[in-house]
């Protein structure tokens, strides 16, 4: 799609579409006010595949691609069974999509991607990016990301997101054409620079504080959980040694032999059961991780709010100083000590023409400044409005999700306890027959 | 009674103890061990008099070589005919200027006629148990004497007066006395009787015996190779070697599990507070998080209990069995000594005389002794095997039970949490 550079972003997504997809897109624009994309489309990341290719510096590299499948859930296409569209995406493309969304919607809590490299894992779990378990967990994470975006009231209607799902080729170019990167760069610079807002919005300051706390508590939780998982693994696996020694011991016993031998098998089973237990628990860790990264996205919104606020304040300050200069020029009084005052004292008064010209210039500058302040004010208000709506939405989503996560964690623990009881009951039966 | 001085005062005892000679423990006793004299009382008994006038004859079943007893032994295994009950409890600390020590109360209930009363309660310290065990070993050399807990503990590592240590030792001493009391021969031993009933123990008696005991050792220390060790005893030795090995492995595994569990426990102790700290800045999630924190801390204390049970109940039993095996190996060794003695004597005779002259009675008696020993040992071995089977069945079932209890506690905690989490959810869904 590199040839369509002059086209409007909104149109770009619509070229090269099959008729049915075009129809979808018309619907797409129609529902832009309300319902999300998920109501009209089934989205999944169906599978992952390992590929080998040459990278930018002509080095052989192995990477993983993910199959993104979409299917229209359309009333109009009822007669024809909609064939799922599918395309392959790399993790880096997901990253690009996320970065685009972050820059384009600074006032939204953009859903996070699953981690690039495994973190907070207990040591038995491979931290290798190519590890099948890791790839599978990431596939689930990426699908979750797409579903989150697709169910977001605002993000789901983004054209670039839509073309990410539906256009295999040229999507990257389309994204770059939006020029989001230039915006991203200047924004990032501003974000990195230290600035202090004079009239900080209390609500956002509180939210930022909340984000900090959430992030720190979840990362602490994940760290302790990973260590506990390590220990739990140890406890179970060491029991496996009983399996071997019981079986060896049974060889020299007569009456006790059978009981020992079968109890040994149960101990083996007990040791083996920990693998499934911890794999399941990893799912809980992934759910927490999503919110760890969500906390970051959440804080980003707060930081961007501060930036908007700061820009407004700067514009206001600039305007005030311009107005002051104008007043000084008009009345001839120098209220404050300034370089201008010094020069006028040293080099004598300006000619009336010069003063006139200066006043005129200041006048236009003040006009511009007032316009800017107005603009910034509106921008800031708009930001606060949209951001607050999304923060409220996020909070609700977070409470719901985390509650669900805790429930599934409790269910997991219950099943672990039941398994434990069963294995030990089996073993007990063997022991009591000895 | 319970504060009876543990130091022995020679004159104040209800019964004064005398050496009880065993056929194997002294030269003269060899006479009585020939098969036709099996049912007569031991030679030492003639010299023995009890101040309270208890007929000497009542002690005769204690003779290790009584055939009757050996038959009884097998019937006794189920414990149905038990008539002697001993418990060790109520440890007390005694502090004097010279030393600090612990005494334990030893309570006895019995219907046996050898005892003047049906109930006794005395206080004994570890030394006294040690004395008893030595007396038993000297007077009943053909029998397996149950082990005592180790006397020496690593100084600094274990506090000898700590509650846990004293309790573990009390259990081991209790087990020791129970094993002796259940033994059809040992339980009739005079020293045992005195230990249970005498207000004060006269422990000086029997010192002379120790010197006598040294004699038979020479046959083995001389590096003598047994010609014909019966297969079954060789098998016993092999069994004990392998069993020791397996027991050692089980002990190491159990210790490792306890170590892993304690480390898991440490992590869990950190885990719950993180949830608690999370509750501080959440509104809607406050209760669920608090619930999870409570649940984790319940599971933590359940695990704490399990680990404690394992280190206090499981490990000591394994340790006792290691010592029990040692005792068994000792008896096996002593049997080998007796057989060695016999073989040496027999060889000397065969070498000296021609085959027609009858084997001297001296050698014949020696052979009888070997047979006596073999019979006693076999009976004790069966008894020991049976004990072992019961003990390990109990120990391992206990371990399984402890683990089941642990999981049940955790299960109950998590199951009670679910409605708390879900109710909230539904309530919230309705308001929406």
TrEMBL record, chain A:
Residues 44-172 form the PX domain. This is Sorting nexin-4. The keyword Transport applies. GO terms for biological process: positive regulation of autophagosome assembly; protein transport. InterPro entries: AH/BAR_dom_sf (IPR027267), PX_dom (IPR001683), PX_dom_sf (IPR036871), PX_SNX4 (IPR034902), SNX4 (IPR034783), SNX4_BAR (IPR037430). GO terms for molecular function: phosphatidylinositol-3-phosphate binding. GO terms for cellular component: early endosome membrane; plasma membrane; SNARE complex. Transmembrane segments: none annotated. Belongs to the sorting nexin family. Pfam families: PX. The keyword Protein transport applies. Keywords: Protein transport, Transport. SMART domains: PX.
UniProtKB/TrEMBL annotation, chain B:
It comes from the Eukaryota. Pfam families: PX. One of its GO terms (biological process) is endocytic recycling. CDD domains: PX_SNX30. Residues 82-203 form the PX domain. SMART domains: PX (SM00312). One of its GO terms (molecular function) is phosphatidylinositol binding. Signal peptide: none annotated. Residues 1-17, 31-43, 51-62 have a biased composition (Polar residues). Residues 1-69 are annotated as: Disordered. GO terms for cellular component: early endosome; phagophore assembly site. The keyword Transport applies. Belongs to the sorting nexin family. This is Sorting nexin-30.
